[in-house]
Structure formats: C-alpha cells, structure tokens
Amino acid sequence: MGTLKFERSEALSRESAKHIAGGVVSLNRKTDPPVVFVRAQGSKLYDADGHEFIDYHAAFAPFILGHNDPDVNAAVRKALDDGLSLMGSGTTSWEVRLAELVRACVPSLDLVQITNTGSEATAHAIRLSRAFTGREDIILMLGGYNGWHNDVARAVMPDAAATGPRVSPGEYAFVPSSAGIPEGTQRRVHLVNFNDLDSVEYVLRRYPIACVLTEPALQNIGIVPPQPGYLQGVRKLCDAYGALFVFDEVKTGFRASLGGYQGLCGVKPDLSVFGKAIANGYPLGVIGGRRDVMELFAHPDAKKRVLIAGTYNAHPFTSSAAIATIEKLRRSDGEVYRQLEAKGAKLQKGLEGLFAEKGVCAKVSRIGSAFCAYFSDHVPVDWHDLAASHNFDLDRKFRRALLERGVYHFPMAAKQGSIGAAHSEEDLARTLEATRDALRAL
Fold first, then answer.
1. Which residues touch 301 (CB under 8 Å, ≥6 apart)?
2. How far apart are CA 164 and CA 137, in angstroms?
3. Mean pLDDT of the residues in the chain
4. Left if phi > 0, otherwise alpha if psi is -120 to 50, otherwise beta: which for 349?
5. Structural domain boundaries of the chain?
6. CATH number 3.90.1150.10 given to 7-68+334-441
7. Could you tell me which CATH number the domain at 70-331 has?
8. Number of H helices and number of E strands within the chain?
9. Residue 154 burial (C-beta neighbours within 10 Å; 0-12, 13-18, 19+)
10. Which bin fits 154, alpha (ψ -120 to 50), beta or left (φ > 0)?
11. What DSSP character marks residue 121?
12. CA 94, CA 17: separation in Å to the nearest integer?
C-alpha cells in the first residue's frame, strides 16, 4: 500500500487549515489520508492529484441516482433559467409540489414541513414531541446519529468505558460529541441499545418521555438492522406510555424504498424526518407525520404554537432538485429499486465469496443499496456487540487498501457503503477485483 501519491490533496489540506477552523467545514469529513476531491460524475470521484475512484461513500449516502444526475441538474438549471429566486414571502408553487410528492410516497405523513438539513428536521421533531406531550425527556439509541444539535450530539462510537458495560434493562451514559452542551440537556436524554425492548420500557417507566427517536436501521455504524419484532415492539410501548415514536429516515428514506424503511417494515411512526437521498445530494430536509402533532406548527394559541422558521427553507433550487429526484424515482415504477437490489445482492455475494476464499472472518450486512462488511463472525445487533466483535484495525487497513486500488469507501471503520443507480456492472466487477487484490495484499 501507499503507492498512490496525494501531494496536491495534502497541500490543499494544509492551506485549508490556515483559513478554516479544523481544516474542514464539517468535522465528520476529516479523513486520513486527506484526499481532496475536485469533481464527481455518476459513480466516480476525481481527486486533486488526478486519481479516479469508484465511489461507495456517496457523501454519506445521498446519491441514490449518482453524482450530477442529468435530470436533477436539468431541473435546477430550469429553475435558474425561469428566474426563480428566494421569494421569502408567502408560499410558492414548488414547495407545494414537493410537499404533495413526499406525502404521496410516504402514507404516514398527513402534513409536512421543509427544512435545509436532516439535523434541523430532528431538532423540530424533538421540539414538536415535547410540545405535544408536555414532557421533556427523550430516548435515543447508542450507535445512532441524529444530527449535531445539543439534544442529539453524543458520540456515535463511544468508548465502552465511558458508556458503561452492557446492561439490560438499563441505560447508558451520555458521552457528548461536543463541548458546550449543558448538563441539563444531557440529563433529559436517555441512551439505550438498539434492539433492546426491555431497556426502552425500563426508561419509559422511569422518566417523562416525550419521544423515542431512532433510525429504523442503524446506518451510521455500518448497517445494523432491527431484529424481528423490535420496531413493532417499540411502537406498542410508545402507545402504552404516551410517547411519540419518531423515525429518523435521513439515511434510509428514499434509499431503502420510495416509502422509506417504514414502507418495508410496516411500522407507522408518529413523526418522520428525511434528508440526503430525497434531493440526490442537494441540501434539503423534511419532517412530517400525524396531523394533530404537525398542526402545532400553526396552532392558533401562541403559547402552544411550535416555531418553524428558516430563510432558506424550500429554496427553489433545492426544491427543484428534490422534485426531480422523486419524480424520476416514481416514473421508474420501482425499476430503480429493483436494479439497486440486484446490484446490492451481486456485490454482497461477491464480497462474501472473496472473504471465504481468502479465509477472512467477515459478514456483509445489507439493506437494498446500503451495505457494510463487518470483520466478525456475525452481523452486530447493537453498538456493544459491534465494539466487542468487529476487527476495527483490519477494517481500516482494508479500506485503505481499496483506496489504493481505486475504490473509495469513507476511510473510517464500520461506515456504510452506498450503491447508486449510476453504478455499472463494470464498476461492480472492478470493485470485486480490487477487493480480491486488497485481501491478497493484506
């Protein structure tokens, strides 16, 4: 390994550190090596040193159609040519159309609101839940990621010594991912392991819980699927204890299926949030759900009204991108998702075959186009399981070996890979050949 040179990338990274606090505009993007990408098209990324990579990082998963999809870009160009601008007064035709499309895809959404990011959408979901229930505490999942704001800014992959050993029923310590989070905020947040119904009920019995907020499948520590009956069980517990059930579908929405993961599992949440794939890489988030909860955004009593505001909410260019993305997915009548499933199954089978051929202990977890190879004898069921069973060092070396061979996964262990409609059969074949060579080298 180490044959690729990243001289220009390293120089740009050093220059960035002179002007940008932390050197990158999102600390989650910081990588080693510090590859700087300058162009993207379809399934490919191109860096400052002229290298081409097959991209499975997909900017943390929004590119369901691929980078610079021509139909999405054409919709944004048309908005420019039509003279659309940020009106900032009243409603607009494009936000109405976008809302109609989202509701048509996701039956649980009686009403929606539009934001700029998934983090904003989860912040609104928590605020709505507190206003609706009159309670302040919330339940989150260890190993989940729900944004950067105070209520959810805890370590995604915390040190086990900091969270405490596995307990069931029970809860775990809030390990902040940022300084500046008030202790009072931390006390209102209760962390349990995903797939642990007993712990969810344990917390619901002891605290005034406004909502249980979870990704329906944990996709920020790879792909940790819900165990049979788990989401259904949380739904029943929320009903029994008067808490709202909130799905964070920022990663799964419009990638797992057109109706989100909830369309696959048959569980109806009270509120849902979406982002990423909904606009194929353009910055847009959505929150929606039950009418009686969402109507708090327009409650006639100012003391009960929940504020939603944002100068750039439903900007015409991002809204046009989202409309074009959803319309393209709907026009395919499921064909895009059938092809993504076929590509995902082919890649999974190929990877598992290579791991077996080389005698590597590994399992591939996959939900449609989203996948992750775990260097373990099983797919983990929660964060404690992953932390104890996964070979993180081998994972990092494997990703670096693939990088050297023109296949880009985010160079951090246990991170999701994403296939898009732009990935070709040739891409898959090249990926498997690169994997064979990487495993041989390792």
1. none
2. 21
3. 96
4. alpha
5. 7-68+334-441, 70-331
6. yes
7. 3.40.640.10
8. 15, 14
9. buried
10. beta
11. H
12. 39
End-to-end, the C-alpha distance of the chain in Å comes to 9
Token pair in block for residue 340: 């993504």
For residues 63 and 418, is the Cβ–Cβ distance under 8 A?
A: yes
Query: Helix (H, G, I), strand (E, B), or coil: what is residue 254?
Result: coil
For 402-429, the pLDDT digits (tens) are 999 999 999 999 999 999 999 999 999 9
What one-character-per-residue DSSP string does 66-117 give?
-BT-HHHHHHHHHHHHTT-----SS--HHHHHHHHHHHHH-TT-SEEEEESS
**φ and ψ at residue 219, rounded to 5 degrees:** -125, 25
Q: In this structure, are residues 6 and 47 in contact, taking their beta carbons and an 8 Å threshold?
A: yes
- Distance CA(188)–CA(60), nearest Å, equals 29
Regarding pTM above 0.85, the answer is yes
CB atoms under 10 Å from CB of 405, counted, come to 21
User: Does 2 have pLDDT greater than 70?
Assistant: no
pLDDT in tens, 32-62: 899 999 999 999 999 999 999 999 999 999 9
The pairing of strands 52-55 and 44-47 is antiparallel
Give the pair of three-digit tokens for residue 348: 């999974």
How far apart are alpha carbons 434 and 360 in whole angstroms? Answer: 16
